[in-house]
Design a protein that fits this description.
Distance between the termini: 29 Å
Shape: globular
Number of strands: 7
Oligomer: single chain
Helix content: 25-40%
Structural class: alpha/beta
Order of helices and strands: EEHEEHEHEHEH
Bound molecules: guanosine-5'-triphosphate, magnesium ion
Strand order of the largest sheet: 1-3-4-2-5-6-7
Number of helices: 5
Radius of gyration: 16 Å
């Protein structure tokens, strides 16, 4: 898919204030600093669209970006970062949970994992929570430019092997780098395919 236009639409704290024009949308989530906002900029070819920072906790709202006047990308705050104390973290997590569980337009959730790290409890628990709630998701490994090709491949393989110890099958997996553009075509093609499905029918619903 070619991205012809990408523009910021709205930021807010509440699912009820998200756009109501009933379009496909794709949200990006993962631990703070994993590279969500950078990936969105890479996908849209606009380095200043989503705000990025080397300090964790940059994104604190639900941010909607309209792509090709047709579908939305949603940048979400990271989870698991003890920002300004427990209360703020709990509020952010509540907002994220509410968005994920109630936003009918969310066609797929992309969960980002830093490809340099070993599997972390917080991510594994998050995956399980998504599974329990029947949320359609894919795993996006980030920052592959920070390692050799062989080391990156090995890390991802080990990660997937661990997941398969408790799962029967893997969700779609993407290997990316916001620095080099790796994975861009694959992600955009995946979204293009999902955009063809009627909004009501999420992939997980097909067999039910
Ligand atoms: P929060 O909004 O704080 O949750 O973070 P985020 O997940 O949106 O991360 P962000 O995109 O702001 O990136 C965090 C840091 O990682 C920044 O310094 C980015 O430049 C860097 N970064 C993100 N993606 C990549 C990548 O693919 N390669 C490299 N080398 N650095 C990256
Ligand atoms: Mg961010």
């Amino acid at each position: 898919m070619i991205v012809n236009s990408a523009r910021f639409v709205i930021s807010n704290q509440s699912v009820s204030k998200c756009p109501n024009d009933h379009r496909h949308e794709y949200a990006f989530i993962g631990r703070s600093n994993v590279g969500k906002s950078s990936l969105i900029n890479m996908l849209t070819g606009n380095k200043s669209l989503a705000k990025t920072s080397s300090t964790p906790g940059k994104t604190l709202l639900i941010n909607h970006f309209l792509i090709n006047d047709d579908w939305y990308i949603v940048d979400l705050p990271g989870y698991g970062f003890a920002m300004r104390g427990k209360k703020q973290r709990e509020e952010l997590e509540k907002m994220i949970r509410s968005y994920i569980l109630t936003r009918e337009e969310m066609t797929n959730l992309f969960v980002l994992i830093d490809s340099r790290h070993k599997p972390m409890k917080i991510d594994l628990e998050f995956f399980n929570w998504l599974g329990e709630n029947g949320v359609p998701f894919a795993i996006v490994f980030t920052k592959l430019d920070k390692m050799s090709i062989s080391a990156g491949k090995k890390n991802v393989e080990e990660y997937c092997k661990l997941l398969l110890e408790s799962w029967e099958e893997l969700p779609p997996i993407f290997l990316t780098s916001s620095e080099t553009g790796k994975g861009r075509d694959e992600l955009l093609n995946y979204i293009e395919q999902l955009n063809k499905l009627p909004l009501e029918a999420k992939p997980d619903d097909e067999n039910s």
